[in-house]
Amino acid sequence: MTRFIEDRRGRVPFALVGVVLLVGASTFGAAISTQGPDRVDRGVDAAVERSSAEATTAVRSGVAEAAREAAAEPVTAPAETPYGQLVSNATPFRDALRLRIYLRVRERLSVTRYRRGDVTAVARLPAATTPAELRHGMDRIEVRGVENGTALRVTVRNLTVTARESGRVVASERRDRTVTVSTPVLALHDRAMAFETRLNRGPLEGPGLGRRLSARLYPIAWARGYAQHYGTAPIANVVANRHVELATNGAVLEAQRAAFGRSDPTGRRAMQRARLEFGVTEFAAGTPINGTMAERILPRPNEIGASPAPLHSRHGAGNASPNRRLNVDVGTMSGRALASLRTESIRSNRSLHDVLRAAYRVETTLRTTRRRTYAEPRPEPDAPGEGWKLVDTDESVNPTVESSIGSTPDVRPGERRFDGFARHVELDRRVTWTWRQGNDTTTTGGEWTERYRVGVTLAGRYAPSGAAPDRPTRPRFERGGPLDGPNLANVSAKASRRLIAEQGGRDTVAAAVAADGLDVSRAVVHGDRPSTLRQWTNEDLTALRGRLTNVSVSVSAGRVATYTTNPPEQLAAELRRRRVTLIDAPDEYHGVADRARHAARAALVDEAIRRLERRSTNHNETRRAFDAVLHRVGVGSTDELHDIVRLRNTPIPAREASLPGSPPGGPVGVVPDGSPAYLTVASVTHDRAAGVPPSRPYHPLSAKNRNLFTVPSGDAADATVGEGVGGPSGVRLRTAAHTLIASESVSNESTSGSRRAVRESVDDSMAVIETRARRVVRSETRLSRSEARRAVSSGVARWDGPGRRALAASNGSLAAAIAVAADARASEPSERRRERLETRLDAAFVAVRRTAAARVDETTVDETLTRVRKRAIERAASEAGGRVRSRYLNGSFGRVAAGLPVAPVPGYWYATVNVWNVSVRGAYARFTFRTRRGAPASTPGAAVRYVRDGSTVRLDVDGDGTPERLGRDERVDFETGTVVAVAVPAYRGGVGDVDGNADERAGTWPEPGCTSWAASACRDSE
Predict the structure, then answer these.
(1) How many whole angstroms separate alpha carbon 983 and alpha carbon 627?
(2) 85 in Cβ contact with 131 (< 8 Å)
(3) Burial, 601: exposed, middle or buried (Cβ in 10 Å; 0-12, 13-18, 19+)?
């Protein structure tokens, strides 16, 4: 067989095949190249592409123009019109921007076409005139901010490109066009809205105007409050609306810097002038704030978050700041505790008499044994016959007792043997049974004998009661110790008398033991105390009281001002912590008297703790009432009040001065420009602020501040906690006394009538106090009734007039004077007696002042107080400098200032607080946000202006030549506020507004803006 590789039949050479393919390809190419050009197709394509390119330019131009127009007239609230409904309530600015872009792009495209030969190409958006058509048109527009809002990326969907040749449509297609335009319109709007949000934030809602307003008002309020309290200036209105205005403007500038990285230059200059005027005004008014201090109190706008510098003043205000520390000590509470301990008329485990007696307490016991030595059987009941029923059994015993020398019971560990004896006892017992049958009764009986050996031991165990630390005591049952007293040496005789003699003697007790019928086996007896024990203990307690008086805790003034700390509770805890040290008990008491002395110490410390715990409870009750007052006026609670104080200086990070991003035009800087630049409660005209409409007075700011506690301090406490308590009504004696004294320096015809009524009422109250003083003097001394009366009269006579006498009775001076006068009449004057009497008198006066008998008619005092304050303010305003200070400070006007005492207990409190509820509302007539750069590269240096002036935004959307109302360009306005709490030390002048205007309003409260017509008149006509 022939192989395939060797078979050459039917084969064609490869070279021939190549030649055939080459010739065929050349022939086909020639045929193709000889056809004519397709001119129509190539012209249409070019026209469409060129028209599409020009459409992109038109879109870019339309977007840039629409963005500038939207910024110049931003829609922030849609109108209630058919075309206004194209703009949503949620995103009015962006919707209005999309509508403007649609209209401007459509307008630009309407004049854009491309012609090539007989072919014409145009790009178009559909015409739209009705709201429904315009909504479909807006749906074609997608707007998105890029580069952090400094550039605008817009997509126009379904842009129609049509090509015509000789009027005939030869091509049509829909295309989307996306352009990026360097315009920060979205960033401007978003920052404007963020800025407005900051302006409307309250102090607890986050960084914003409310918090910065707090930071600026607190230094002012505390400085003026302390100046008023210490009497360094005739301040009748601690927080005035001029302070609110200044603080608000400074806070607004800080909010601008936080939002835009810079503040309004004109506003900064206006603020600087206002700061200088503030310093001059306050210094002239006598407040310890001069221009330099004003700079320190009011941080500049670039000092966001900085805490105000401490305010130091030669006027005594010190560091007037919520950051200062207040030392609260036990103070007079220790004296009251000691007086309560020494009060003999009240027998309790807290009286000194019982405390000393309890240290000599011994528990005694009769320990007994009995052993039966002989016993006859007890006879059984024997019925007299059938049918008799036993109804009663009666036993009797006849003992025979003989002495014995047998053993007696041992005492237990810790007991002491006082006595012991043994007896032989024979008991002749008889029993009688009573029987009944029907109406008949009869008796039967029996007898038997028992003999017992009885042992009795009288034992005692030292068992002192009280709170003294448990320590061994030696000596105990023998004489000795620091006073060489009997200790418990005579206790055995008392115990023997109580348990043996009073029960019939030894034989009777032995017989009762044998018969198992001993009535009393235990008794508590007290040893005799040394005659000098009380005096010795009193001296020791007086020294301890001095140590207790100085025990203190440090509390934050801000927490005191907001009632969010409880110093009595802290003092009680501090005393409990130091209790062992204060009692200072030895490892072993040197006799019972030594233990008694330390028990008295423990009783005094515990009584002080008990009183502080009661004050703590009162404090918490007052805080709840304080919360209720705050809630009623819309402030919130004490916790929220403290949060305002705590958060007021929280650092606020400022934004960069340029908008972040890299738009084609370069970095974008935003400059806020408000008109008026300085928001005042006074009227502003067009001459001062270009944004104000001509001939339309405008009030850019309205303010209100309400002082909560304008009545004198003690009576503010009554008003706060008195609802539902049922306590005595009327004004406290201290307040009435200050009012009476103050009225002397301004007395005239307008005050004479009410002053006379106050004087008579104070006289009546002092008569009650003097009566109580005579009782105390007689009970604490050996003076006769007439001598006690003369002593009290002598002490009272040290003060001239009922006002000063009542004030002395309120501050402790009268108690000391009467104690000195009474001690001088004693046969042997004693400093210890004088101190004890002073403490008792002071406690008695406190008790009297709590009763209705020591209260003064409220209406009478209020009338006098109002006239005194008015007259004092008029005099301070009309007279000059040092003369005003001298008369003002040497008078008592400041003594009747306002405030709420913390822990309002008569004669004891550690601070006075007051609260101002501040509200502000403001509106710029016009606010402009302008950029320094960021315009398209083709127009270098051009700026975008975002303007908010309250005008109506109109736009011709249907092409009829008449603009339709889309919405409103709302003004940049705000409403916020804060609460200012000030705490000053107790007594003196308190703190508060005393000018009779507790609710101060300024501007066109509650709405800022135009005056003499409705607010809508300030805007363009709709």
Answers:
(1) 17
(2) yes
(3) buried
- Dist CA 964 CA 953 (whole Å): 8
Quote the strand ranges of 527-634, DSSP E. 552-556, 589-590
The answer to whether the peptide bond before residue 663 is cis (omega within 30 degrees of 0) is no
Here the tokens at position 692 are 């104000």
Confidence (pLDDT) at 13: 53
Q: Pick the closest to residue 235 from 986, 1001, 1004, 984 (CA basis).
A: 984
Tokens of 469: 């630390």
Token pair listed for 888: 């003002």
d(CA 534, CA 172): 119
d(CA 645, CA 740): 37
The pLDDT score that the predictor gives to residue 729 is: 59
Could you tell me which residue, 1013 or 617, shows the higher pLDDT? 617
Residue 480 has φ and ψ, to the nearest 5°, of 150, -170
Q: Please name the residue ranges forming H helices in 678-812.
A: 713-721, 733-745, 749-780, 785-796, 802-811
On whether the CB atoms of residues 177 and 184 are closer than 8 A, the answer is no
Residue 756 in contact with residue 740, Cβ under 8 Å? no
Q: Between β-strands 589-590 and 473-474, what pairing exists: parallel, antiparallel or unpaired?
A: parallel
- As a whole number, mean pLDDT of residues 332-338 equals 85
Residue 1011 predicted with pLDDT over 60: no
Q: Check whether 537 has a pLDDT greater than 60.
A: yes
633/895: higher pLDDT: 633
The contacts of residue 557 (CB under 8 Å, 6+ apart) are 321, 322, 323, 324, 325, 326, 911, 983
Amino acid at the residue 274: A
Q: Which residues, in sequence order, are CB contacts of 36 under 8 Å at separation 6+?
A: none
Could you identify the residue written with the tokens 């004092």? 872
Residue whose structure tokens are 């507004």:
993
Which amino acid appears at position 343 of this protein?
T
Residue 504 has pLDDT above 80, yes or no: yes
Question: What amino acid occupies position 471?
Answer: R
Give 826-841 pLDDT, tens digit per residue.
777 777 778 778 888 8
C-alpha span between 592 and 116 (Å, rounded)? 128
DSSP secondary structure of 358-409: HHTEEEEEEEEEEEEEEEPPPPPP--SSTT-EEEEEEEEEEEEEEEE----P
Helix (H) or strand (E) holding 79: none
pLDDT for 583: 95
Phi, psi of 407 (to 5 degrees): -75, 160
DSSP letter, residue 377: P
**Spatial CB neighbours of 961, under 8 Å, sequence gap ≥ 6:** none
Question: Which backbone phi and psi does 427 adopt, to 5 degrees?
Answer: -110, 115
Closest residue by Cα to residue 445 from 429, 457, 421, 459: 429
Annotate 494-513 with DSSP letters as a single string.
HHHHHHTGGGT-HHHHHHHH
Spatial contact of 511 and 425, defined as CB atoms under 8 Å apart: yes
Say how far apart CA 194 and CA 148 lie, in whole Å: 14
The end-to-end CA distance of the chain, in Å, is: 113
Number of Cβ within 10 Å of residue 18's Cβ equals 10
Fill in the amino acid letter for 439: N
List C-alpha distances in Å: 682 to 216, 677, 699, 1007, 1009: 21, 13, 6, 13, 11
- Tell me the backbone φ, ψ of residue 529, rounded to 5 degrees: -100, 150
| Structure tokens belonging to residue 885 | 């200070």
**Residue linked to tokens 């007039």:** 801
634 vs 64, 627, 828, 919, 979, CA distance in Å? 48, 10, 63, 11, 10
What are the tokens at 804? 């000063």
The conformational region for residue 801 under phi > 0 = left, psi -120 to 50 = alpha, else beta, is left
Range with the lowest mean pLDDT among 556-570, 811-825, 860-874?
Answer: 860-874
pTM: 0.74
Q: Which residues pair with 325 in a beta bridge?
A: 556
Q: Which of 689, 669, 674, 670 is nearest to 971 (CA)?
A: 674
Distances (CA, A) of 77 to 73, 85, 649: 12, 10, 35
Q: Which 3 state secondary structure label does DSSP give 785?
A: helix
